[in-house]
Every structure is written in structure tokens, then in C-alpha cells.
Amino acid sequence: MIRIATIAVLIATLFAGLLGTAVSASSPEMVKVIIGFDREPGPAEEAIILNAGGKIKHKYRLVRALAARVPATALPGLLQNPGVISLEEDSQVFTVDIELDNSWGVNHIAAGVVHDAGNKGAGVKVAIIDSGIDYTHPDLSANYAGGYDFVNDDADPMDDNGHGTHVAGTIAGRDDGVGVVGVAPEARLYALKILNANGSGYSSDVIAAIEWCIANGIQVTNNSYGQSTNPGPVYQAVFDKAYAAGILHVAAAGNSGNTGGTGDTVGYPAKFYSVVAVAATDKNNVRASWSSTGPDVELSAPGVGITSTLPGGGYGLSSGTSMAAPHVTGLAALVFTSGITDSNGNGRVNDEVREKLATTADDIGAVGRDTLYGYGIVDAREAASVPEPIITPGNIQGTVTDGANPVAGATVTDGTNVVVTDTLGEYMITGVSPGTYTVTASAVGYQSNSLSVTVQSGQTVIANFDLSPVPPAATTVGVNSITYVREGGKRFRMTAGLADNLGKTVTGASVSIDIYRNGSHFRSVSGTTGADGKVTFRITNVLSGTYTSKVTGVVAAGLTWDGITPSNSYT
């Protein structure tokens, strides 16, 4: 009953258009299909395809199926064969479309902390099922370990699209101080090319690529491609069986989401239970509006504005869940090399790695697993079991001097702690938490001095201060000059200049002066000094004679007038 119903649905939907098309007898229309059998395909099953006028593309071992091109007119006959249990269209898969500081995502998930602890995913076998890899790129060549081109059926999976190379850089770009650094910069990269130069391919090649992974001991696959409809049971079965054999599959959830975050829009293969579906977030840990949503979203990772490798040795910036998935793939490689063990005794650890990624993710959005972020944004430090660093207080020590002479009794503070220098001018502030501080030294008779000091865990930092004596303060003010300038006619200008006892000009001082002619009082004037410490008076209606001036008063803030009038005369 199940077989009859399945065949009826296939005829009515998948191939309805093909069966209704007039076909030339001399040139039958060929269709790409995946044929499932009730036993492992052998010569007899291959003969069914060949006798129907078909051509076999792939002979699978992991699943009981063959991929082939057959005449459209042969489809009903194939469905009637008792050995055929399923007939699926060899549907197309595509790169998950790109919606749009180097590798900010790698730092954002704290992968650098794991690298610093000595874990860079060394030796973990990662297969990038994509458009191939430019294995000559300086950031990728050292980690490239081989692969296969299922599009052209050869052993040269060179990338002619760019998508796969960008993915590869995020996963395992070499940590060489140039370009970008991947999440697992010492993982082994395998390129399985299933997408052509236009970024499209067929599910039959995906199945063949997964079988290749099992045959070659791959531990993690990255799948940044997809389609909106379920390709069929054979396609799902190969992912399920590879997962059961120990391979962890990571896939882009898709870029079919909406601003409201509603709907179930996760594509395939990300939608399968045996595959980890990854959503995309930005630098603010917010889901990208286009990131697909639904109950199958399992994890989130940076996917907006990601800089990575491009064919030809270059670098470029892209956004999409295609960019988010490689962050998780690279992190999975780090977890594989973190010492994780087979806790459930099933003979594999990919399920433990998957659980570790989920249980250590930073939960954002709704509490627990949700349809936008899954379990949350992956956290490399937690997932790869890097312990929190032990923080030990440090010290600040040094000397306070006046040139070559120690300053005893000086006060030194970091803003919290206060100590006093000894007779040698030495001090030490102990028990200082790691961080950056402004340390200030001060002493009576000296100008204070400050330094910015960074204290590291368990370290002693040196901060020496050389203080300058406080300059002597001015106490008195006086008029140090009185000059005259003839203006012509019956006019002249008289200017008084003021300075303090240190020789500095005094501004804003009020000055009163009596002017004498031939020894008799002629006129009294007063004014205020300007920025140059001088005040000028214009004297008019003067008669011939000898003029002298006498200062009668000076008022200046904080200063006492010395009462002296400098010698002066004008004739």
C-alpha cells in the first residue's frame, strides 16, 4: 500500500509535466533521477536502467540507489518494476544566496581564546561540500588535503565560483599574520565540488560527496547550499547514515527569513535531524532579518559582513547563513580536538560534539531553544573547554625623585590604594587587580605627576616619577616703567607697565596716578592694565613745561603694591 501511494504521488506531482510532453522517438527527452531499490544495486539493477535507454551517473554504496539519466517515457515502466521502491527527481541545489574588520566573527565567538590555549583544530578532517576551493590561496594551501570534483568527475576541485573558497577561509584560514584567520586554522580541508561556476548542482552529487566523506574518514562536513523542497528519502538517508557513522553535518539554515521572524523557512539539508542548522547573527548578536527561521534552527553564528578568502589570493566580504555555518564547522573541529570522549558508548563522538555546541551556546532570544537562534550563539571558549583564566592581583612599584634626589614622604595612589614613599623615595602598591590605572604621585612643595599604568595578572609593573618643585608664588606688584609719547599739539600719551616680584606682567590691575607739571599737581588719572600688563592714558590740553608722574595706588588680586614709583619725566 505504501509503495502504490508513493508511486501515485510521484507520477501525479514530480513527473506530471514530463509525462505529458510529446517526445520524439529519435531523440527522447532525458531526465535526471535517483532510483531507490529494495536491495544493494548490482548488475541486475544496472541493467534495468540501461535497458530503459538510460545512463548511470553514480553507483551508491551507503544507500541502495543509483543516480541516472533516463528517457522520460521510461518512467512509468521503472515505477512498475518490483525492485524499484522509490523514484526521485535529481533536484538542483544552490549556494545559499549571499544577501550582500577581518574575520570579526572568529573573534566574536572567542575562537582566539581557544587558539591561545593551544587548540587550533590540528588534523581534524573537514569536508567543504560546495563549489570547490582555491587550494593555491596563501591562507588555504597549507591546510588543503585533497578532494574531488563531482561536477566534472575528476580529482581537481578548483573553485570556479568563489563561494567555497570564502567558506574555507572562515573554517581554516591559516594563522600566519596575513589576511584572515579561520576558526580552526590547523584543520585539514577537503574540497568536494558539487556546485558549478553558477553556484548550482544536483542532489545526486551531494549523495556521492557524502559517501566520499565516509570512505575518507571525514569528521565534519560544511554544507552552505540548499533547496526549499525535500529532495526525497534517499537524499535524507545518506545524511542520516553518515551521521550514524560518526560524521557531524553542519549546514546553512537558509536566507529565506523575514523581518518579523515568522514562519518555517529552513531549507534542506539543514532541515534534517542529522544536520545542524545554523542561523546568522550580526555584531550585536541580533538575527539577520533574512536568516531562515523555524523549529529546526539549532545554533547561531556570525553571518553579516564576514571577510574571508576569495579565489586568486584575495579577500572579500559576504553575508548569509552560508557565512554563519563555517563558524560552527570550524568550532566543531576545535571541539573534536578538545579531548571530548564517547560518553554514551556508541562508538563515536560526533553526537557529543553536537551536544557540547548546543549546551555551551550563549542563549539569546527566548529562553531555551527557539525558532530564531536555536540554542543560541556558539561560544568557542565554553565549547572547547578552555578554562577561565586564573586572575592574580599584581603590584605597582617605583621611586619618586626630584632629579637625582629621592623624595621621601611623597603620596602615591592608583585611585583606590594610597601609599607613602620611604626615605629612599621608594613605594609599592600591592594587591592591584589587573587593569589600567592612572597613578599619581604628589609631595609638599612639588607639582603632582600622573602616569597611565597597565597591571597584568600576577605581574609587577614599574612606575617611576620625577617631580618638579612648585615655582615660588608672586607676593607683590609694582609699576616698573612709566613712559611718554608725544602725540602733537597739546597732547601726549603716558603708559605705566606693571609686573609682580617674579617679573611676570600683571593683568587686570587697577592703577591710580597723579601727574605734576613743573612740580605742581596737574591731573589725576586711573585705569586697568590689559593683557600686556600695561595701562595707557591720553593727556590733553597740556602746556609747556616738565611733567612727572607719581603712582598713588595699585590694586591687584592676591598681590600687595610695593609703593614704588619709577623715575620718569617728560618735557
- Reported CATH architecture of the largest domain: 3-Layer(aba) Sandwich
Structural class: alpha/beta
SS summary, helix count: 12
CATH class of the largest domain: Alpha Beta
What is the subunit arrangement here? single chain
Number of strands: 32
Beta fraction: 25-35%
Distance between the termini: 135 Å
Q: What's the pLDDT, averaged over the residues?
A: 91
CATH topology of the largest domain: Rossmann fold
CATH superfamily of the largest domain: Peptidase S8/S53 domain
The domain tally reads: 4
Strand order of the largest sheet: 7-8-6-10-12-13-14
| Helix proportion range | 10-25%
**Cα-based radius of gyration, to the nearest Å:** 42 Å
Largest sheet: 7 strands, parallel
Helices and strands, with pairings:
Layout: H1 2-14, H2 16-19, E1 30-37, H3 43-51, E2 55-59, E3 65-71, H4 75-80, E4 84-89, E5 92-95, H5 104-108, H6 111-116, E6 125-130, E7 144-149, H7 163-172, E8 188-193, E9 200-202, H8 203-215, E10 220-223, E11 225-226, H9 233-244, E12 248-252, E13 275-281, E14 297-302, E15 306-310, E16 314-318, H10 321-336, H11 350-359, H12 380-383, E17 394-402, E18 405-406, E19 411-413, E20 418-420, E21 426-432, E22 435-442, E23 449-455, E24 460-462, E25 465-466, E26 476-488, E27 491-500, E28 510-517, E29 520-528, E30 534-540, E31 547-555, E32 560-561
